[in-house]
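Quick entry, no commentary yet.
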Amino acid sequence: MHENDILNVKIEKFSNLGTGIAKVDGQVVFVENSCPEDEVKIKITKVNKNYATAKTLEVIAPSKHRIEPFCPMQKICGACQLQFIDYDYQLKLKKQIVEDAMRTIGHIDTPINDPIPSPKIKAYRCKVQYPVAQTKVSERILAGYYKPQSHELVNIKYCPIQPQICDKIINFIRNNAKNFNITGYNEKKHSGDLKHIVIRVSEYTEKCLLTLVLNSKKSFKNAKDFATYIFESFDEISGVCFNYNDKKTNVILSSKTELICGKDFVEEKIIDKVFKIGTNTFFQVNPKSAENIFKYVKEYIQNNYKSPIVLDAYAGVSSFGICISDVCQKVVSVEENEYSTNLAKEIIKINSINNIEINNMDAGKFFQKETRKFDAIILDPPRKGCSKESLDNALKLSKGKIIYVSCNPATLARDLKYLTEQGCIVESIQPFDMFCHTFHIENVAIIST
């Protein structure tokens, strides 16, 4: 097998990165845009020692699960890798991804529950981050997503997985930026004004917070005039902010955000609690699916404890702590980001909650200094998972249960393996589909310590 070979193959399995898996002379080939049971004509794009990669040229005999994508840009854009597979089968494939991670990485044999589907599979993505560029000749503003494994921008005017108001606002910015002498970002030259358009939409109020990420250290008149013009043109926009990011970096948002018009937040409602979400606030992009996770954790605590004391680690704006507060004696929340902890204090006041203790510090350092023990500990770390030190300290503070919320099956499996080596038992693993039509899957693991 060599690069550029054209081959006919049968797709046997599905990988944890959303590609089909075929075998050619015993060697694994990862095939883009393919589904188990497909027979496809492929072109080998790269050959490594242990595997090869390929792209699909033609579907010879489609799997019964293959459907027509509802987005015409699906193949080009690359954001919705699985949209050509029917949704029920997507959930089965995601369950397989979790099972494979648990067996091969974690050596965990706990049965995996069927994933809880997303309540919405279209217009579910309530946070949009579009990079911006500009054509050389016509100087048209482009905004969209990058093609897979590239920095080639796809100009997206319609995206069915985000609310329609996002398309309207972004098209308005494209069409009017030139009138205010606002230029698109040139990544190679690190020049131009507008780097990204970020929109947060509230399911609860249907209002939007618009953030324009500028290649600048401070605001300037043209940009302010443009922001005001956008704000006054849309009743749905609650506020417009500038985020200043003049560094040559892949990081979208810097820590420096300034309110230009209106309010610097939108409100979102999860279960019966109201949250304020700003530009730099981490909050799940699919609120309805996130609500399912919060309900699941709350019901578990309610059904297994009477007036418990719970630790909410890696808490962000204390979303879990706030949602479970009325079934707890006390919630102790830990988050190292000061902006998030300050916002959490505001949200707690809005919801008239008086049994949450906020700690603004690194979770690992908190674990080391803390002497109290907790009935249950909620761990909701970033994709990289927890350090061994944090897991050791969580065990030290636990009276019996850890509820581990994870957005990465691989790091969850790694951490569960470590916990079982320390004598823990993984009681259950419940997947939740947060990012429909992608290979990503959230999980909540219940662990007895």
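second:
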Amino acid sequence: MKRSQTLVAAVALAATSLPLVAQQRAAVGEAVPDTTFPEFLNGDGRQKLSEFYGQPVVIDQWGTHCPPCVGTAVPNAIRHDHAHGEDGLVTILVESQGSNPAQLEHFLWERFPDNECFSCIGTFVPIPESAGIPFCGVIGVDGKLVWAGNPAAFPKDVEDAVEAELDKVRKGWGDSSDARKVRAALYGKGDFERAAATVAAMADGAEKTALQGEIEKRYAVKKNAIDVLRKAGRWVDAQDAAAALAKGVGKHETWATEAAELLAAFETDAAKAEIALDKKLDKILKTMRKGKLDRAPKDLEKLVERAGQSTVAPRASRMIAALAATNN
């Protein structure tokens, strides 16, 4: 699957999007209350902040009519995501100046065609309130807020905070060597089999129970992503996710058979047809990422005609609507 480079997730709220009731906000060093994001343009089924646990999350609040956002903060976030997405970084771009989903997607294709960050329209994010945008919150692997501020003014601070958290992804974290081993395997390497074996060898107790829960939750999130990606017409990403999960569980007695079945489901004739259509759409998207948007609507319309009832067709249709939208 995709995902990659280091800055990473910003949060700032426009006055018009503030909730009518008070909501909890975390200060630096505190656990960030869970929240649910609006549907991401390019998500993988994770909508709750807690579902990103074990990965550093950068939430970047920005706006399409904000020069510092468009000129500095968002380009930095995308660049960092490209560099570190595969290392575990999650970057969430929250547009907070009133765009609707089609307008946001149109703007991102027009100005930032290489964007692969999780992107959504404005929502409440439980970090310190800001007087303006851009505003960024860096949430650590353990769910605590490690930095908040203006990413355009302090890009080095964001980079340093993310680098420190990515080091925890690689080495693990926790108060015991067992916890660090489990988390390094689970989040750093995606090795469910090794993580489970380490937990199984631990003495019974609260720590063992908690770590086992982390493993099970992580497996459920990864498994759900395969189904979500498939239903969204992103069959190549779904197949890659299934392959990664099957490799990660290895010969685990509980999950190996299920993971193998998930992977085998991509070998049916129907699945192969969907994958072929998805690859055709990907070629169009690659052309769009080069800034060549003029011919894309016609190419997408042809694909929709050929796709029929395929799950890829609605995805292509959404792209047609986004390209026709404006930000006025």
